[in-house]
Backbone:
């Protein structure tokens, strides 16, 4: 299925005790596509991302990877498939330089000793390939701007040559110029043929880089929209519940949706 989705979620549900966090979620992401995942606080975005990343496996439903059903019960499963997740906290070490952060946990050894020369060479090559500009690969992360830190975290996720990258609020708390740097990088990932899931509260960012927008509301699908043909107001209406998508209305009529 060369034209099929890289990732397809079918009927994903997740419960925490008495709380139903996700109910019957469907989502598809194709290669060379940015899908924005949006919704109000408590909509289920983080829970869905954790299900994909293997951090909090779904209770029900099917995950398909390149057309085949797969089990993702731990982060290693997702990484082996080619799923990379960059969380909002970035998980960078401020006192370590860019090279050290890029290869943290996957250091290159030669005769039992860190091969600093090779790691630096690969770091420069990776950043150049992604058109990421920083003062030096030997500068401590603490000396970089928020936008530069975000691009380094995204670059680190590329070392495993993933096919899908999940970005959790990558522009949160960034200034205008830094946000532009990150969004440019998101577009470059798409141009390289990667599938990208972008979690964001910023509608301007979503409209700038996303191809489609998937709206979650109260743990359910509430519409998937083409960015080019959908207004920002329509998307916000789906987020707030001012409008429900056809699937939700149909399920409500059949009594499947709890009031």
Residues:
């Amino acid at each position: 299925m060369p034209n099929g989705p890289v990732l397809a979620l079918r009927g994903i549900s997740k419960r925490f005790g008495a709380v139903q966090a996700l109910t019957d979620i469907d989502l598809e992401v194709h290669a060379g596509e940015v899908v924005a995942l949006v919704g109000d606080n408590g909509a289920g975005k983080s829970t869905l991302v954790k299900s994909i990343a293997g951090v909090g496996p779904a209770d029900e439903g099917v995950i398909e990877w390149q057309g085949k059903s797969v089990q993702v019960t731990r982060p290693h499963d997702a990484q082996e498939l080619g799923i990379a997740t960059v969380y909002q906290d970035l998980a960078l070490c401020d006192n370590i330089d860019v090279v050290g952060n890029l290869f943290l946990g996957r250091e290159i050894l030669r005769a039992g000793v860190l091969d600093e020369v090779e790691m630096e060479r690969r770091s420069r090559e990776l950043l150049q390939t992604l058109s990421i500009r920083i003062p030096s690969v030997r500068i401590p992360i603490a000396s970089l701007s928020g936008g530069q830190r975000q691009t380094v975290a995204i670059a680190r996720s590329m070392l495993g040559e993933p096919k899908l990258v999940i970005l959790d609020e990558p522009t949160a708390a960034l200034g205008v110029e830094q946000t532009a740097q990150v969004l440019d990088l998101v577009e470059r990932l798409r141009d390289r043929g990667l599938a990208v899931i972008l979690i964001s509260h910023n509608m301007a960012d979503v409209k700038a880089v996303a191809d489609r927008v998937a709206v979650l509301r109260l743990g359910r699908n509430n519409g998937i929209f083409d960015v080019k043909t959908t207004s920002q107001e329509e998307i916000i209406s789906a987020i707030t519940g001012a409008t429900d998508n056809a699937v939700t209305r149909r399920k409500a009529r059949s009594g499947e949706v709890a009031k």
